Amino acid sequence: MVDQPSQALNAAARMWQAGRQSDATAMFDATMRQEANNVQAYIVPARAYGQRYQFERMEQTLDALVRRAPGDPGVHHYVAETYGALRLPLRATRCYEIAAALPGAGPPTWMELASLYERGHRLDEAEQLIERAVASGYDLPLVWLVRGRIARRQMRLADAESSFRTVIERAGARASWSCEAWGELALMKDAQGDYDGAADAIEQCKRLQRSHRAAHQTVSEAGAKFFREFVESLSKDDFRRWRDEAVDLPPHRTGLLTGFPRSGTTLLEQVLDAHPELVSSEERDFLGNELLRTISQSRPTTPLRELLNGLSADQIRAERQRYLRSMEYLLGEPIGSRLHLDKNPAYNLVIPLLLRVFPEARLIIALRDPRDVVLSCYLRYLPLNAVSVW
């Protein structure tokens, strides 16, 4: 197997990003036939399909790759990365385990697996993989970051701090690894009651992030302006009309749990998810990403309110089914007659999209003292994106 991009793959990917899905899919299929021994000929389309919630096609493409080279650890590593990008840790773990057991597997696979083991509370197995990677000469920041997290969880706080400071020293002051390490130090010192130390550590993290915020802030401001104007354009009559138009659709038990990030949505979700008549999906971006793109891609300059009001009953029915199928795939189980709760902090402005497709949906808005919310957001490392940039 070879592992390289090609002109045909790049052209197909550009078509996909431009919304020409039929043309791109045809070119992806042709490239897989013509470059059957190129790993990227499978991985590029599989990840494109996954990003657009076309999970059946994604699985077929990944299966074709594994059948082509079942004994290649790099193949299973790529498949694991694909599942990891979809936040499917159990599937990613299984694929990394297959890769790690094959001849030729190396430290990158061992460390990705160690990171998943640490998150899954399998600390002894994670440490074994770390030592295996270090013994082979692998010494990248991920080694020390995961080592530090394990030591912190085992209450070996001096070892944890040493590991996190090693990340900062070796990664460099402007690296994202350093941001994560400073965030870990802040949490650890806050738990110890060293509030000055926590404040100093998290300020180091935020200072690094502020130097990279410009592009994310531009996207954030544009998105906020778009949704603010959309919400202001709506009236009670729109919501009443959407509800009346859905009267003939079979109802689905669904709901949205939202609120500002760090406002308690995760704890509330865990409490509700313990009920046998409810199942929750955590931060799946179907509504604000996939649904929005689907209804606007053919008329990108048309106001969103007009697009939503123009949806036919058949289109609403199709999007309802696509949403539920996607959530079942990501959950790994059928929803059945249970109430499905979509937990998505910062989804307040997306509520109208949900109510257009599911006018019967229940809404839960988590509220927390704003002072606690601000402090909680500040004291944690949050990867930069259009939401966290503020």
Task: Explain what you see.
This protein is mainly alpha-helical and 390 residues long. It has helices at residues 7-17, 21-34, 40-51, 55-68, 73-85, 89-100, 107-119, 123-135, 141-153, 157-171, 176-191, 195-210, 214-233, 236-245, 265-273, 286-296, 304-309, 313-331, 351-357, 370-378, and strands spanning 254-258, 278-282, 339-343, 362-365. The protein has a four-stranded parallel sheet, sandwiched between helices. It is globular and about 65 Å long. The two termini are 44 Å apart. The model has no long low-confidence stretch (mean pLDDT 94).
- Quote the distance from N terminus to C terminus: 44 Å
- Give the integer mean of the pLDDT values: 94
Profile the largest sheet: 4 strands, parallel
User: What's the total count of β strands?
Assistant: 4
Strand composition percent: under 5%
Helix content: 55-70%
| Secondary-structure element series | HHHHHHHHHHHHHHEHEHHHEHEH
Q: Label the structural class.
A: mainly alpha
The number of helical runs is 20
- Give the strand order of the largest sheet, numbering strands 1, 2, ... along the chain: 2-3-1-4
Q: Radius of gyration, Cα only, in angstroms?
A: 23 Å
- What characteristic shape results from the CA principal axes? globular
Low-pLDDT parts are none
